[in-house]
């Protein structure tokens, strides 16, 4: 559902992404990596918000060369950026409804779709509160609600669990897995545990490239008995994979 | 109905929900049961809560269709959740395969439904019928039908078109046999 | 619908359906009919088994309206507010624009014979300023930009709304202060707006508005004493020639926007 070939993005003189090859089908795909690895940039390219400089990108079978295709794709994509802005007076429900309209959800379907989205992120009780009065975790969930309101085929999430408490994170993971049954979900996150329990596969990025591609189980196996940094087996596996990738590129 | 299990609420709210329940809960329960026997009760309750919440945005017209749309979305979500819990779970047997034997009652059905069509439908395998039901009767998109039936989207498409082709074939052969008689 | 109301499901079929013994053929027919027929739904309820009746009661009993929370449909105005920004901003802008125009109307420009007042000089900037404010207030969301309507459609709706509101307002103000040139400001005003749209895909609509405003003010500054360049004054002085030129500029800007319309919806280079 998402395919990139030799994807490259350059800001000024820096190659933020280079030689990126991806082939993602339905399921939940994790994206890990240190700051500056290019995760957010990759998500932004896939979300059609940032133009790439080299290589090819195909989302849902369409390249993003023509506006008609881009609009078609955007109708079927959900995107949660790292930080989203909103207008001062909006309530959570209003905001999600506005985004639903922008995404061309048919007018008569908007209220039930908004309701369903808010229910799935467990925000019905706060639905009519002004956005500025919501806590960080709650507004993150509003962003998630907006991303899923059009029942997208591709869901791109950049640091979605920031501010969520552990119980909410569990619920969030369940939701992702449910969506991943027939949609392509890409989650970029710092929190390795989220990746472990929700994702079917994990890619580790470093310095603009994908340096490792494995399942959470394989990462955990890598971490078993290793003495790399990390509180959990998965974290150790992640650090281990990253370190060997770095030493490979140093050679 | 014991008093202890009901929460006491303002008359207005409960009355509105009762109104909706009396009219629509029976048929919705049966319809959901034929698609998800284990979860029909839960789905019914969820549907009604959602319907009651969104009653204000109901623009008139076909209340049954509106309710079914809400119910069917929840059915899709529930199917996906079930797939997550058990990826190998086979789709539930849907509808019944009550035999094709023509009973006296079924003869009477001739004026309810074209008996030829009924027989033709029963000639199809349960999987084909399920695909046809999901796409035609329930109004699911291919993607939603795939989630509900627990198969790939391509399978939904090929099964529906095969079902249609077979139906056409069976109906054509009935017409011929009538003419020959 | 009337056809369906006249045709009702056979009792045998309904009973089979109620007891779960209907074949698919019967079931589908009954189900499709029931979504639209009040009469048969009631008949079906009567045919329920006792077991099912108590099941229904139990389910109803467990249901608490409190779980469903408040009834509050999404207001359809949410989309409007999202597109245009808060209503108070519009009221404020309209009032400010009108007041500013009428006040400036009494401030004469240094060079007589040029334009009667600063209002005439600055009126064309009003739509530009309003577009910039609307975008500043309403366009803060990277998620909203990446939507089918969030590109060209949104830009056109916002610009059109600004023009529809500022057009009559400023013209009314100009007419009020008199001195001729009631609607003369419109052509340059429209051309500047279209110019901002044309520059939008390249630098962003807000920046384009600010840039064009600065450019216009620079021209005004150049046209005023002490330099008092006549050629600069000619640009902002309404006359047959400049009107034609502004009309030409407007047309050119529209052509550019049309030629670039794809870019509004394509991924860009966000800074």
Query: Which sequence of SSEs, written as H and E, runs from N to C of chain A?
Result: EEEHEEHEHHHEHEHEEHH
Number of strands of chain B: 0
Beta-strand percentage of chain A? Answer: 15-25%
Q: CA-to-CA gap between the ends of chain A?
A: 35 Å
What is the CATH C level class of the largest domain in chain B, in words? Mainly Alpha
Structural category of chain A: alpha/beta
Please state the oligomeric state of the protein chains shown: heterotrimer
Q: Structural class from helices and strands of chain B?
A: mainly alpha
Sum up the overall morphology of chain A in one term: globular
- Gyration radius over CA of chain A: 18 Å
Largest interface: B-C, 57 and 49 residues
Mean pLDDT of chain B: 75
- Largest sheet report of chain B: none
Structure explained in plain terms:
The complex is a heterotrimer of chains A (251), B (181) and C (271). Helices cover 39% and strands 24% of the residues of chain A. By secondary structure, chain A is an alpha/beta fold. In chain A, helix 8 packs across helix 9 (233-250). Chain B is mainly alpha-helical. Chain B starts with 10 loop residues before the first helix and ends with a helix. Chain B folds into two domains: 9-89, Orthogonal Bundle (Rna Polymerase Sigma Factor, Chain: A); 98-181, Winged helix-like DNA-binding domain superfamily/Winged helix DNA-binding domain (Arc Repressor Mutant, subunit A, Orthogonal Bundle). The longest helix of chain B has 28 residues, at 153-180. Chain C starts with a helix and ends in a 12-residue tail after the last helix. Classes of the chains: A alpha/beta (251), B mainly alpha (181), C mainly alpha (271). Chains in contact: A-B, A-C, B-C. The A-C interface holds A 44-45, 47-52, 64, 66-67, 70-72, 74-75, 77, 79-81, 84-90, 93-99, 101-104, 107, 110-111, 114-115, 124-125, 127-128, 143, 146-147 and C 69-70, 72-76, 78-79, 81-83, 85-86, 137-138, 140-152, 154, 261-270.
